[in-house]
Model the fold of this input.
Amino acid sequence: MAIQSAAVQRQHQVQGMIPEHILGKAVLKMTIQELKQFVEAQVAENPALSLDEGNLCPICGAELGGDCCESCGTQVASDDTSDIEPTHELSNDQWTNCIPADEMPDPMWPVAAPSSLVDYVKEQIPANLPQDMVQAAQLLADFLDEDGYIREPLVDIGRELGMSAPQVEAVLLQMQTLDPPGIAARDLRECLLIQLRRLDEMSDAENSFDSADRFVAEKMIREHWHSFCRVKLDRIAEQMGVPRDAVESALRFIRRNLNPRPANVYRDPWEKYTPRKTPRTIPEIIVDRVSDNFVVRIANPFSTRLGVDEMYASLYTEIGHRKSRLDVGDISHVRECVRRARALIQALEFRNATLYKLANELIRCQKSFLEEGLVEVKPITQKELARRLRVHESTICRAAAGKRMQLPSGEVVPLEIFFDASVPVKELVRRFAAERLTDSQIAERLRQYGINIARRTVAKYRSELHLPSVEYRMVA
Done:
């Protein structure tokens, strides 16, 4: 009976073991979310692992330096209650005096049906839109995301609502006149332009602003968008023929008066006390711009917080010095747990080092992309990257799988774009499509760039980019 019990125990231990070389490969392939779940599971199973909880982001697990996570951008509500006195020591009148009148909780919150951004927009539709558009606008409002954008292609929305893309766009343009300013935009550029237009409408003696700043701001956004996104102020000033000071002043005007997430202006009352729960896309690699250089950071919430438990480390040392009084079974348990803990820590270090080398090599050969955007991506094969880093191609494959990079502009892109030769071509197709060119005209324009592809390939790329045909783009 004892032998059977021991056999079952050994089988259970073997199932929980992962050889070091397999563990390293598995951890390297994990995204940051998968890694977080895996490490937490290992900590729960292995008593020799110690994880310092500290002040962590609830979304990505990174260490917090304030109320905003540097890794994923999540706003975290403060839990500091050190200045709050116990409730039994305060009377009702004292509590009332402690809270501003406009922030007093509504006693009907628990029973009232909470309104939302979508409800708020729908309430405005009957009084502000033509009668024949009201029903369609009410349906279209359901496509608003939490930032206030409508990001789905109008062709797809039209198909779902039984409307043509031009009909959907006509309703959309009317919805963009509603509050909050910038609502129902399809992208950031359109959102900012809508708000600039609304500023003109709201301008009066009490709400005046510098018309020169307003003019330069709109021209920057409308005609120099790619340089604006990368804060290339000298280039914008040169192309617009204005002093750099004027560009800087316009940039301050934009930051002061425009909101990239218009829905944040309209927040439900209870959201003042709780953070939003929808996480941003979390990057594994973060690229910052420091002066004229690009610096890589690896987002790893466990780099300094995971270690071997002090008690198990002490027991392991005693075993090594033959000073332990533990029995054979306990000695085996301690050794195995410490071995697994060290293997996980080494796997995390290997993952960090590999991602760091990979990211540094990518930004070294992709500086044009970081400066100019997708059209300047210089595709590289994983085999070539492996040769440069002197690692096996499979290592690059695992390191890049599912990973994302946050650019200095804040944009998050998948690492796959650096290995896909079609990415810069697709970006050109996107730009030319915005000029309302046909597929044949786009193919001809690409030939001027030395890119020879057939019209049907242009149509394929356009479809993958969710861009409608020229007939539907003519109304844009």
